[in-house]
Amino acid sequence: MNDRTTCCIAGGGPAGVMLGYVLARAGVEVLVLEKHQDFFRDFRGDTIHPSTLEIMYELGLLEELLRLPHQKFPQFRIRMQTEVTGLLLENDRVVGVKARTPEGTLDVGADLVVGADGRASTVRERAGLEVIDLGAPIDVLWFRVKKKDDDPRQAFGYVGAGQFMVLIDRGDYWQCAYVIRKGSYEEREQRGLQAFRDEVALCAPFLADRTREIAQWDDVKLLTVKVNHLRRWYREGLLCIGDAAHAMSPVGGVGINLAIQDAVATANLLAAKLRTHTVKMSDLKAVQTRRERAANVTQRVQVFLHKNVLEPIFESRETVAPPALLKLVERYPRLRRIPGRMLGMGFRPEHIRSE
After folding, report:
1. Is 146 inside a domain boundary?
2. Residue 54: which of 345, 288, 302, 314 has the closest Cα?
3. Nearest to 259 by CA among 55, 16, 88, 27
4. If 259 and its partner were Cys, which of 15, 75, 97, 127 is the partner (CB 3.0–4.6 Å)?
């Protein structure tokens, strides 16, 4: 099978769909390819920050987000259960993608291919783009347990002796992120599921009466944390954004919001060129120039927190005292606005410019 579009986006996550929507709104023909059959991912894009809400407002979607039917753009198409497996090349220029569908293989020709397919990006691997690894000392175990009426009413971080866990309120259940040393998951499996339940209960005692809801290891999802970025986000005919360009740690929950900011900047800078089919390497470079600093600074902050907050927790056999920086913020309330703005708005929030 064959298809053709102006911009082919690999990955129907928040960045891919946002980019597709904003480009289609600006009159660019877009095809988004998503490998899953639906969008019901438990651990995909868990938090929406103020910078993203502002973009939704600027698009006119904030009030209409949950109302159906939505406005349709004839320029926007999405194919589910369509997994990008490779790139189409002509004279070393990317001219499209190869994909796998339930009906067979699919070749999609495109003026521009955008890799928005996450930290395990097939697009960036097939493009041969150089990855700079900053390292991450942690992995995360995701699971859920039911909520009770007398439970805390908001997300909390729980710190114990060598333990750290974040709970996210999902209405009728808690989505739990239990942070572990990188590579220690198999050791926990060997100790057994009950030992893991006991760890959870020790870290967050109010959950002790429901840890048996973790009935098997299949109920626990391992997130292998990576913090890395591409030296160059692009090559001729191709651009990577979001985690495909800069894989973020879950610390701060900022990955989805950076990815959406990337998508908006990409649309702002490339929509007019895509409409006239005149995108050049210098245009792709402009996207990286616009977004790279924000991503790199955020990653450096995450690496700092890994080293100065999480590693001391894992190394201690007693509950760790709050870091000096946190004590300072607690002592002077006005300082709380600084980390709040850093996390909520990011280092370079974007705004809708493309029409």
Report:
1. yes
2. 345
3. 16
4. 15
Output the pLDDT for position 47. 57
Residue 68: the pLDDT is 44
Looking at the structure, do residues 61 and 193 belong to the same domain, yes or no? no
Host domain of residue 85: 2-133+226-299
Query: Total domain count for the chain?
Result: 2
Residue 117 lies in a domain: yes
Residues of the chain under the 70 pLDDT cut: 39-53, 56, 61-71, 154-155, 318-348, 354-355
Q: Dig out the tokens for 227 from the structure.
A: 């913090």
Q: In this structure, how many other beta carbons lie within 10 angstroms of the beta carbon of residue 19?
A: 30
pTM value is: 0.83
Q: Say which residues have a Cβ less than 8 Å from residue 24's Cβ, sequence separation at least 6.
A: 30, 73, 75, 76
What is the pLDDT, as a whole number, of residue 200? 96
- For 276, the token pair is 């006239």
What's the longest Cα–Cα distance across the chain? Answer: 64
pLDDT at 255: 86
223, 251 contact by CB (below 8 A): no
pLDDT of residue 178: 95
Same domain, yes or no: 207 and 255? no
Q: In angstroms, rounded to a whole number, what is the distance separating the alpha carbons of residues 288 and 233? A: 6
What are the φ/ψ torsions at residue 272 (nearest 5 degrees)?
A: -65, -40
CA distance 337 to 58: 24
What is the CATH number for 95?
A: 3.50.50.60
Q: Is 313 part of any domain?
A: no
Residue 352 lies in a domain: no
Q: b vs e for 123-145, b when ≥16 Cβ sit within 10 Å of the residue's Cβ?
A: bbebbebeeeebebbbbbbbbbb
Residues 177 and 62 in one domain: no
Residues 247 and 193 in one domain: no
pLDDT at 345: 52
Which two tokens mark 106? 């699919």
Beta strands in the chain (DSSP E): 2-10, 30-33, 76-79, 83-90, 93-101, 104-115, 131-133, 138-146, 156-160, 163-169, 173-181, 221-223, 228-230, 234-235, 238-240, 246-247
* Unique residue bearing structure tokens 């998508």: 263
